Amino acid sequence: MSSPSAPTDLDAASVAPVQEITYREAMRMAIREALADDERVIVLGEDVADYGGTYAVTKGLHEEFGRERVRNTPLSESGFVGAGIGAALGGLRPIVEIMTVNFSLLALDQIVNTAATLLHMSGGQFSVPVVIRMTTGAGRQLAAQHSHSLEGWYAHVPGLKVVAPATVDDARWMLPTALADPNPVIIFEHNALYGEKGTLAPDGSPVDLESAAIRRSGDDVTLVASGGMVPKALAAAETLAARGVSAEMIDLRSLRPLDIATLQESVMRTHHAVVVDEGWRTGGLSAELSAVITESCFWTLDAPVRRVAAAEVPIPYARHLEDHAIPQADDIADAASELLEVGE
User: Fold this and answer.
1) I want to staple 155 with a disulfide (CB 3.0 to 4.6 A). Which of 14, 90, 256, 266 is the partner?
2) Three-state secondary structure call for residue 317
3) Does the annotation count 62 as an active-site position?
């Protein structure tokens, strides 16, 4: 995967009916449109102005919209996430950028005890329409303190909506829906996706935050993944095709709420499921998904649900150890082959 790089000229690109842009550019396009269309939208975070954010997603926006609306904050996640929540309560539509999910732990009180609970605790009088963007995932030798995949932690919390765009289209079109939602929405952006290119559909429009997407149809096994694991699951499906296995690949897109109906319909046809999660296996999102599939499809499963997850270790720095610690396409393909008892 490529590292963060300077953005292309989106103004020039926008005249083309079909655009090939990076995930980073698609996210920037969504934020830029939001700032232009609604004066209530502001952007808060570390280095989001001059530097353009750690991953260059907000690069150039402060020159266009000013420092009052694209604001650098002190290095204090609890402080600026709290400020974003307060701004939302005051009528604004803040987009708060947290550098990585690891650092979001410093704002857990604000996110879990405040943003997620105020609507309930106020008897419906106060909603918190804040969008919190954060980078997640490993694979770029950023070591243990910058490589967590904690999506499952936040998906555990009622009162939050949690999404993980895996494609250029979703990076572009999930944000408008998130900003319109009265609930706090967390958007997880996998660090390995920022430089990935894709074709932006010319007729794109805001997407809901509740539906999974079938990225590849198949008949023999259902592969379930989200975020940065989606490209690996699709690569695994190609490997499986060479082994004579037809794999269906479901991109969850939304982690809370889960689109159980799409999962159920697929597994009831394929009779097999492999759940992929870059987070740790113990108590993770893969465990919840396995339980959901088993509970709803027990009588149609021909084998137990198989999980492919990160090794139970802090993510190593060394490249070969990091690669071994997190799920790879071959791991997914091998798990599906073992499930179906198919030889390589």
Assistant:
1) 256
2) coil
3) no
pLDDT digits (tens, 9 = 90+) for 69-94: 999 999 999 999 999 999 999 999 99
Beta pairing, strands 161-163 & 254-256? antiparallel
> What is d(CA 290, CA 35) in angstroms, rounded to the nearest whole number?
40
pLDDT, tens digit, 9 for 90 and up, residues 180-214: 999 999 999 999 999 999 999 888 899 999 999 99
Q: Looking at the whole model, is its pTM more than 0.90?
A: yes
Of 62, 97, 146, 148, the catalytic one is 146
CA end-to-end distance (rounded Å), the chain: 27
The hierarchical CATH code for the domain 213-340 is: 3.40.50.920
Residue 84 and residue 80: Cα distance in Å, rounded?
A: 6
For 74, 190, 333, the CA distances from 195, given in Å and listed in that order, are: 27, 10, 25
146 is catalytic: yes
Marked catalytic residue, from 46, 77, 196, 248 = 77
Q: Give, for 205, the enclosing helix (H) or strand (E).
A: none
Could you count the other beta carbons within 10 Å of the beta carbon of residue 148? 24
Q: Establish whether domains 13-200 and 213-340 are of one fold.
A: yes
Amino acid at 297: C
How many of the other CB atoms lie within 10 Å of CB of 53?
A: 25
Instruction: Give the residue ranges of DSSP H helices in the chain.
Output: 10-13, 23-37, 61-65, 77-89, 101-104, 108, 118-121, 151-155, 168-180, 229-242, 260-270, 285-297, 319-325, 329-340
Alpha-carbon Rg for the chain in angstroms: 20
Q: Where are the domains of the chain?
A: 13-200, 213-340
Specify the CATH architecture of the domain 13-200: 3-Layer(aba) Sandwich (3.40)
